[in-house]
Write a structure and sequence with these properties.
heterodimer, A: four-stranded antiparallel sheet, 4 strands, about 5% helix, B: about 260 residues, alpha+beta, Jelly Rolls, 9 strands
C-alpha cells in the first residue's frame, strides 16, 4: 500500500528576491526511515537549486517566505543567522 | 607564558586574514616526533579526566615557540586556560555533527577566546576534519545550536590537515565535526584559551596598513549574500581592535570613517 511522506527543503537566498541565488541548503526527508542517513553537514558544495524559483519549477511548494528585515536604530550592523530563509515541501509516495 | 621572539608572531597579513575569516590554519607547526608521540598517547588514552592535564607531550607542543607565538598574537603572553577536550570520531562513523558555535552566545564586543585544534595525524577529507564556515565569527548573534538546521553553506571549508597542523579558531566561528569514512579513529585536540590582557597590538604590526592587508579585506563572504558588505565592515572593525588603532580603515567605501563608527 502506498502512502505519502513530506520532504522539507530549506533554501537560504542571498536577498529577499525568490530569484536570488542560494547560499545555503538543507533537506529533511520524511520518506527516509530512521536508520537511513539524512543530508549531512558538509556533504555538498553545490546547492540543489540555484534559486527558490528554480525549485518551484521542479515541483517544490513554498511553505514559508521570510519576513523583510527590520533594522532597528543602533543595531543596523549586527549579524547573526542567515536572514532569507525559505521553507519548501513536496510530497513523495512510498510503498509500505 | 613568556614573550616569544618577534619572528614567531603572526604578521599583519595573517592577522588581517584572521579578522576576515575567523581562523588561521598553520601546517608544520609541530615536529613529527611529537606528532607521533601525541597520536600514540591519544590512541591509548581512555580517560576519565583531562588529557591535557595528564600529558606532558601535549603541553610540550603548546610550549613550542612557534605555537606560543601564534597564541601570544591572539590572546597575549598570559592566556588563561579555559578548557580542553580530545575530540574523537570513531572509524566508519558516518553522521556529521550539527553546525554550532561553541559555548553560549558571547556578549563581548570584540574580545574573544581562541580555540586551537591540533591534528596529531594526517586528516584527509574522508577522515572527518572539522568543518568551518570562514567569516561566520562576524555573524555572532547566534547561540550554540541555534544554527543546527543548516547543512551546507556556500564557502564552508574542511580543515584538511597534515600531522602537525594547528587551526586557531575564533570562539564564535560556526563549525561541526564531520563523518569519518576510514577504518582509523580520528583525533583532534582542542585547547581553549582566554585572553589575559586586552587583545590590541599583540601581533607583528609591521606594515599593518599595507597593501597585503588591504588585499585581505577585498575578500567578501558569499554566504552572507546581501549582508556581505556588512560582514566585511564588521571584519574591518574587528581588525581595528586587533591593531589597537581606531583610525585604520579597510571597510567597504570607508564606512567606518564615513559614519564615525
Amino acid at each position: 500500500m502506498s502512502k505519502t511522506r513530506q520532504q522539507i527543503l530549506i533554501l537560504h537566498l542571498a536577498d529577499s528576491s525568490l530569484e536570488s541565488h542560494t547560499v545555503a541548503w538543507a533537506l529533511y526527508d520524511g520518506a527516509k526511515s530512521k536508520d537511513e542517513l539524512q543530508m549531512n553537514t558538509g556533504d555538498s558544495q553545490t546547492p540543489p537549486y540555484r534559486s527558490v524559483l528554480d525549485a518551484m519549477r521542479d515541483g517544490w511548494n513554498v511553505l514559508q517566505l521570510p519576513t523583510m528585515p527590520v533594522y532597528r536604530s543602533g543595531f543596523e550592523h549586527e549579524l547573526g543567522a542567515l536572514p532569507y530563509e525559505y521553507v519548501l515541501e513536496r510530497k513523495v509516495t512510498i510503498d509500505e | 607564558m613568556s614573550n616569544v621572539e618577534k619572528h614567531h608572531l603572526l604578521n599583519a597579513r595573517q592577522m588581517a586574514s584572521f579578522a576576515v575569516n575567523g581562523y588561521i590554519q598553520l601546517e608544520n607547526l609541530v615536529p613529527q616526533e611529537l606528532n607521533e608521540a601525541a597520536h600514540a598517547e591519544q590512541k591509548a588514552w581512555k580517560g576519565p579526566g583531562s588529557y591535557w592535564a595528564g600529558s606532558k607531550v601535549i603541553q610540550e607542543i603548546f610550549e613550542l615557540p612557534q605555537v606560543k607565538g601564534v597564541l601570544q598574537s591572539l590572546v597575549g603572553s598570559e592566556p588563561v586556560y579555559d578548557h580542553s577536550a580530545l575530540h574523537v570520531v570513531p572509524a566508519q562513523y558516518h553522521v556529521g555533527q550539527a553546525y554550532h558555535a561553541d559555548s553560549v552566545i558571547d556578549t563581548r564586543p570584540f574580545g574573544f577566546d581562541i580555540q586551537a585544534f591540533y591534528f596529531s595525524h594526517d586528516t584527509p577529507e574522508i577522515m572527518g576534519p572539522t568543518l568551518i564556515l570562514p567569516g561566520s565569527h562576524l555573524h555572532n548573534k547566534v547561540n550554540t545550536a541555534s544554527i543546527a538546521r543548516y547543512k551546507n553553506i556556500i564557502g564552508q571549508r574542511k580543515l584538511v590537515s597534515k600531522a602537525g597542523t594547528i587551526g586557531f579558531l575564533h570562539n564564535d566561528i560556526w563549525h561541526c565535526a564531520q563523518p569519518n569514512y576510514t577504518d582509523e579513529t580520528r583525533y583532534v585536540f582542542k585547547l581553549r584559551l582566554r585572553p589575559g590582557q586586552e587583545q590590541r597590538g599583540l601581533f607583528n604590526m609591521d606594515d599593518y596598513k599595507g597593501p597585503e592587508v588591504a588585499a585581505e579585506f577585498r575578500n567578501y563572504h558569499a554566504f552572507a549574500g546581501n549582508d556581505s558588505r556588512l560582514t566585511q565592515i564588521a571584519g574591518a572593525k574587528f581588525y581595528r581592535y586587533l591593531c589597537g588603532d581606531d583610525r585604520v580603515d579597510f571597510s567597504f567605501e570607508g564606512v567606518l570613517t564615513r559614519m564615525g563608527l
